[in-house]
């Protein structure tokens, strides 16, 4: 009888603890990302970068501002920061180029590989892959793929998509992508020009499940698609021998997607370097939220890693937002979370 009573008490205690844990999890703070805004990168020479993106890829300049001061230092975690920031638009999407006039950061490592976890790129949708590739060859862009690759039809989710990796003058990875009928967003099939816009930014992650706890469970992004890509076409696209990738597409209600690339093989990709915002290998994706109050509770709960000391009020309306904070995901990719966009 005593044993049965003890077992019953133990079961009741476990039930209470489970309910408490469930209530605590449901009450845990989270950030609801309303939109993915600009995708940014640090450049070493702004005039050269702008010339490349506007002349080769037909982006249009939207703004050109200079930022400095204590709030900008705190936002990006760079002491003494003075930066020139240029926003460029392609279709409905935008990128943000930042040149740090002071202090200068490090260049992209010469040996950086597409399966290293510091890897990030933007996928630019094109009307015609052959024509777009010929244009890039005319401008003598640096190849990152061996050439454009048509993904095989046996791959149900990716079959018929053609893609090519290349590099900009600072050696950031970029991609051009063509969707066949029936794949991709409807807007990519209204082909009124060669370069149409940005479908997503892709980042290499070590563990998709860990990344989903950050992007889906903490930031509220939705899983929009999944695929496992491999075989010779994928190897030549990524320029990684034996590449087999688990790919997970995430989206907010507005803006480009965020694509997680987990290399199942080879597992030789290096962890992200200790990047600072003024390093040329630094990218930052801007996420728009309604409220920034949950930032510090999430940081205390180790669900988000802050670079900024908290939400920073920015006294520069021409940057396009009023309050923001720079954070890093589990692999070190920078996410700039902002509220009060203009």
Main beta-sheet annotation: 9 strands, mixed
Tally the structural domains. 2
Spatial shape:
globular
Could you estimate the helical fraction of the residues in percent?
A: 10-25%
Figure out the total of helices.
7
- Give the DSSP E fraction (strand runs of 2 or more residues): 35-45%
Mean pLDDT, to the nearest integer, reads 91
How many extended strands? 18
Supply the CATH superfamily name of the largest domain.
Answer: 2,3-Dihydroxybiphenyl 1,2-Dioxygenase, domain 1
CATH architecture of the largest domain, please?
Roll
Structural class: alpha+beta
Helix and strand element order: HEHEHEEEHEEEEEHEHEEEHEEEE
Radius of gyration: 22 Å
* Low-pLDDT windows of residues: 6-27
Q: State the name of the first-level CATH class of the largest domain.
A: Alpha Beta
CATH topology of the largest domain: 2,3-Dihydroxybiphenyl 1,2-Dioxygenase, domain 1
Distance between the termini: 69 Å
How would you describe this structure to a colleague?
Strands 1, 2, 3, 4, 14, 15, 16, 17 and 18 form a nine-stranded mixed β-sheet that branches. Strands 5, 6, 7, 8, 9, 10, 11, 12 and 13 form a nine-stranded mixed β-sheet that branches. Helices cover 23% and strands 35% of the residues. The protein is globular. The protein folds into two domains: 33-107 and 275-339, 2,3-Dihydroxybiphenyl 1,2-Dioxygenase, domain 1; 120-265, 2,3-Dihydroxybiphenyl 1,2-Dioxygenase, domain 1 (Roll). The protein is an alpha+beta fold and 342 residues long. The protein is built from seven helices and 18 strands. The protein has helices at residues 2-27, 46-55, 70-76, 129-138, 208-218, 232-238, 295-300; strands spanning 33-43, 60-68, 82-90, 93-102, 120-126, 142-143, 149-150, 162-167, 173-178, 195-205, 222-229, 244-251, 257-265, 283-289, 305-306, 312-313, 323-328, 334-339. The N and C termini lie far apart (69 Å).
